[in-house]
Amino acid sequence: MDVIQKIGVFTSGGDAPGMNACLRAVVRKSVSIGLDVVGIRRGYQGMIEGDFVDMDSKSVSNIVQKGGTILKSARSKAFRTPEGRKKAADQLKAAGIQGLVAIGGDGTLAGASVFYDEYQIPLVGCPGTIDNDLFGTDETIGFDTALNTAIENIDKIRDTADAHDRLFLVEVMGRDAGFIALNCGIGGGAEMVMIPETLTDLDEVKNHISSLMSSQHRSSIVVVAEGDENGGATHIASVLRADSAFENIDLRVCILGHTQRGGAPSARDRVLASRLGVAAVDALMAGHTNVMVGIINGEIKLTASKNVWSRKKSISYELLSLIQMLG
Ligand code: F6P
Q: Does the pLDDT value for residue 326 go beyond 70?
């Protein structure tokens, strides 16, 4: 294999706060060891279209504190086809790009794995998703910021819920994962949390919440992960409202949605992203490929990309029992 002299870096899938900090680290580390770096705009879609931009130290100035991604992101349908991936490989070849750093979530790394199997272009992934659902790292870039955004909003909802003695169902992001829900449920003092990793019996929710609300209570907050098997918060609210036990309970729904994806990255996310960006370039230059860099127990670890998206990262059952006890 030729020695890598030019690499491409891109952000893909749902954006996450800290992606810019990671990009900055990838670019500055690369420049420091004499590599040429090309930014690929709009993830795999930009790769297919050859939407490339040369990057240097200056092009990543003043972005460490910014949410979103200056390279923009996309969920490319075309890259899911062999024709799309062939175009992408041709574009990389024409631009002389010999290695890639992908910053994204499970879809990004699944795409990377297939692409590597087909074209063997060295690739290292950085875990960037607010969902924290990637095997091979304790935390993903963006998770901490999203969690803090969710908690901040739950605190605000608690004020108004308390003023009116209302029940609020607060829906947080997490298509297939309950990491945000579980953690903001504990940090926000929620009475219950509903997550996709566990089966929640709606009758139990009804019994628990209606008895809480009819006792000395006050307000209640139930945090629902968007991927919960009972459906989203809006659907669950309609089921509760139809129950006679909820006749006198004032219920509201609040969907936090994409507010959790935006905003300045937390200190923790900036540090995580910087460490992982540098580690990704180190891994690529050390000859690792088709792997993701992660941090486990404080240390940089590499995990085969296919394990990252095919193996399920477990939620903490200790946290789950905490919420059951405290709520
Ligand atoms: O993967 C991150 C995530 O924010 C999920 O939690 C959510 O389900 C999804 O992206 C939303 O994606 P989009 O912004 O494309 O609708």
A: yes
In this structure, the residue with its CA closest to atom 11 of ligand 1 is 14
Give me the mean pLDDT over the 62-86 stretch: 98
Number of H helices, E strands in the chain: 11, 11
Helix/strand/coil for 24: helix
CATH topology of domain 6-142+265-310: Rossmann fold (3.40.50)
Q: How far is the CA of 286 from the centre of ligand 1 (A)?
A: 33
Ligand 1 interacting residues, C-beta cut-off 6 A: 14, 75, 105, 129-131, 173-175, 226, 261
Q: Which CATH superfamily is domain 143-262 in?
A: Phosphofructokinase domain (3.40.50.460)
Do 6-142+265-310 and 143-262 come out as alike in CATH topology? yes
φ, ψ for residue 183, nearest 5 deg:
-70, -40
Q: Residue 36, class by beta-carbon neighbours within 10 Å (0-12 exposed, 13-18 middle, 19+ buried)?
A: middle
Domain boundaries, the chain: 6-142+265-310, 143-262
The string of pLDDT tens digits covering residues 155-185 is 999 999 999 999 999 999 999 999 999 999 9
Report CA(5)–ligand 1 centroid distance (Å).
34
Active site residues: 131
Q: Is the four-CA dihedral 63, 64, 66, 68 of positive or negative sign? A: positive
Q: Which of 106, 108, 131, 260 to mutate to test the pocket of ligand 1 (most atoms within 8 A of CB)?
A: 131
